[in-house]
Amino acid sequence: MPLGDHLRELRARLLRAVLVFIAVFIGSLFFYEELLALVMRPYNDAREVLGQSVETKAYVKGATGPLLLQLKLCAVAAIVLTSPYWLYQIWAFVVPGLHRHEKKWSRIFAAVAGPLFLAGVAMGYYVLPKGLEVLIGFTPAAMENLVEFGEYFSFFTRMLLVFGVAFEIPLFVVMLSLAGVVSGKTLGKYRPWIIVGTFIFAAVATPSTDPFSMLMLALPMLVLFLAAEILARLIDRFRGRKRAATEWADDELSPL
């Protein structure tokens, strides 16, 4: 396809994605209260656990704060809700340029990546109240903790995004194994360093500083890495058998 046709196709797909985003964004405005309750639930759970030990209150800053809060919250909700559609548009734009075997593995990647990301987001949402409880718990007894919603919402989205992306890393390891870049034997050799690196990554990546959040990110990642190593070894074994069968066939045909 000529470059001009590629650019026109890209423009058309981007326009479709933007129109769907705008429609879902407008629809999200009607469910603002429900979305706000969903975002505030981890903070309210942490405040309930803290009880009277720490006085904490959420607030919105500035005259334009409430409006910006509503727009930002609905925009993030629209991005998440429309992600299957705009991911499909990216997929549909890229797939025609792939070979047949590349399309097969990329379909597997697309099928597994979404559920893994959602599992990571769900884990982050589950861990968030405990992280907030620990962080707010450092407030001195003589002081009141005021949580500005803009900062809290940024913390909320970073936390969920980190967990979601972290759950994708073992999948990339499997894809590298399928591509022949990494072998299962190599992963087994460097397993101790992978374990140490996973805990370091979890400690650095989590926005909260409590050890509970770090462990809740590191432990599932280690399980996924172990599963990735097992799959990589199975892939190596299958590739070895296929290579041996090919060499045997070549030896059988060589006298001819």
TrEMBL record:
Keywords: Cell membrane, Membrane, Protein transport, Translocation, Transmembrane, Transmembrane helix, Transport. Coiled coil: none annotated. It is found in: Cell membrane; Membrane. It is a multi-pass membrane protein. GO terms for cellular component: TAT protein transport complex. It comes from the Bacteria. GO terms for biological process: intracellular protein transmembrane transport; protein transport by the Tat complex. One of its GO terms (molecular function) is proton motive force dependent protein transmembrane transporter activity. The Tat system comprises two distinct complexes: a TatABC complex, containing multiple copies of TatA, TatB and TatC subunits, and a separate TatA complex, containing only TatA subunits. Substrates initially bind to the TatABC complex, which probably triggers association of the separate TatA complex to form the active translocon. Belongs to the TatC family. Part of the twin-arginine translocation (Tat) system that transports large folded proteins containing a characteristic twin-arginine motif in their signal peptide across membranes. Together with TatB, TatC is part of a receptor directly interacting with Tat signal peptides. This is Sec-independent protein translocase protein TatC. It comes from Nocardioides jishulii.
